[in-house]
Design a protein that fits this description.
This protein has three domains: 84 residues, Sandwich (Immunoglobulin-like), CATH 2.60.40.3780; 103 residues, Immunoglobulin-like (Sandwich), CATH 2.60.40.3710; 142 residues, Beta Barrel (L,D-transpeptidase catalytic domain-like), CATH 2.40.440. The radius of gyration is 44 Å and the shape is elongated. It is 12% helix and 37% strand. Strand 6 and strand 7 form a beta hairpin. Keywords: Acyltransferase, Cell shape, Cell wall biogenesis/degradation, Peptidoglycan synthesis, Transferase. It comes from Sphaerisporangium flaviroseum.
């Protein structure tokens, strides 16, 4: 057999080891490159994805920009996301609208109604980590189909001083549908506050009286924030109102038809004792009414004609009297009566009025204020609470049941 050559074992072993070293060297090279190159979380421009920027605040306003026919009883609402509201200004109807921020200053809500038929501009500013933001908007309120106004307030005579029993009588130009909403807009504030309440006499007349007589010598302010108040279907208040009345001294007179006397007190002090003659009471019509009256008006002279009778009828009369102060709508006055001086202090001979001596009637007339108190006792005919200004005939508990806010 031929001789075979035997491979050099050193050569056989050297080749795989060298190859392995080359493979390992390659792996190490790849590993080093991966560890020092740009990563997916690296900064922008290095081959990775950048973090999103913080957004600026977003401001939203309601009513929306350009809205028309906006209901005046709706609120203006401004909100901010991604930041806080720094400033909100709403202008329209000739004034700046008030409002309040919430605790986090992310919402602002207006206070009170808007003025009808008016243009409003809203501007709002907000700040946040994404920067400041500012937005402006505008809208228009609707023109009411029916406009509610105050037609009259009694008392409202410039410079007038009134008595401690004087009510505040408010007459509206429209029949009020939502009396609660309207009454909530009415406010009475006194320098010497007392409890009081409104009573709706009908759909157009509301009257305010205190539980007790007004404290004397003070000013009382009445205000109506009617502007924008929804008073009924398609009816809104269009104008605010305010007036002040001056309460003078406490003139309180007491008439006793049984003793035929009238005692006049000013701030508790007797200033006049008057012998009088009251209604002869042969009929209900000729009976003086019993209860708390208020002085309403005066005249000099006043022509008095028997009610429901014409000339020639039994009991007809037509008399001209001087220094007459009205105390009811059923024809009762305190007035001078020279023809009955002999009966004054002794007997009741009138048609229902309080007859007094001419000089004393003039004293009472000269010191007259609307709303002075005249309390009459001794007859069996009660003054009706709605006869003239007989409002004090109702106990206050009953009076305030006529309020739309009672209970």
């Amino acid at each position: 057999m031929g001789e075979r050559s035997v491979p050099d074992m050193r050569q056989r072993l050297r080749t795989p080891i060298a190859g392995l070293a080359m493979v390992m060297t390659g792996l190490l090279a790849v590993s080093c490159t991966s560890g020092t190159g740009p990563s997916s979380s690296g900064p922008a421009g290095g081959g990775g994805t950048s973090a999103p920027a913080t957004p600026a605040p977003e401001i939203k306003i309601s009513p929306v920009k350009g809205a028309s026919k906006v209901r005046p009883d709706k609120s203006v609402v401004v909100t901010a996301s991604n930041g806080e509201l720094q400033e909100v200004t709403v202008q329209g109807g000739g004034k700046v609208l008030k409002g309040e921020f919430d605790a986090g200053r992310t919402k602002w809500i207006s206070k009170g109604p808007l003025k009808p038929s008016s243009d409003y501009t809203v501007s709002a500013k907000a700040s946040g980590s994404g920067g400041p933001a500012e937005v402006t908007s505008s809208f228009t309120t609707l023109k009411p189909a029916q406009e509610l106004r105050i037609a009259d307030v009694t008392p409202n005579r410039k410079g007038e001083t009134v008595g401690v029993g004087m009510p505040i009588m408010v007459t509206f130009n429209q029949a009020v549908g939502d009396k609660k909403a309207v009454e909530e807009s009415l406010e009475v504030t006194a320098e010497k506050p007392v409890t009081g309440a409104w009573r709706w006499i009908n759909d157009t007349l509301a009257i305010y009286r205190p539980a007790k007589y007004w404290p004397a010598h003070q000013k009382v302010k009445f205000s109506a924030r009617l502007e924008g108040v929804r008073a009924g279907k398609s009816m809104y208040g269009v104008k605010n109102y305010a007036t002040t009345m001056k309460i003078g001294a406490a003139w309180i007179s007491t008439v006793n038809t049984r003793t035929h006397t009238m005692v006049v007190r000013k701030d508790g002090k007797v200033v006049q004792r008057m012998p009088i003659s009251a209604g002869k009471a042969t009929t209900r019509e000729y009976t003086t009414t019993n209860g708390v009256h208020l002085t309403m008006e005066r005249g000099n002279p006043v022509t008095m004609i028997s009610p429901g009778k014409k000339k020639g009828d039994p009991g007809y009369y037509k008399e001209i009297v001087n220094h007459a102060v009205r105390i009811s709508n059923s024809g009762e006055y305190v007035h001078g009566a020279p023809w009955s001086v002999g009966s004054q202090g002794r007997a009741n001979v009138s048609h229902g009025c309080i007859n007094a001596r001419p000089d004393q009637a003039r004293f009472y007339y000269d010191n007259f204020h609307r709303g002075d108190v005249v309390k009459i006792v001794g007859t069996n005919r009660a003054l009706e609470w709605n006869n003239g200004w007989g409002f004090w005939q109702l106990p206050f508990k009953q009076w305030k049941k006529g309020s739309a806010l009672d209970g």
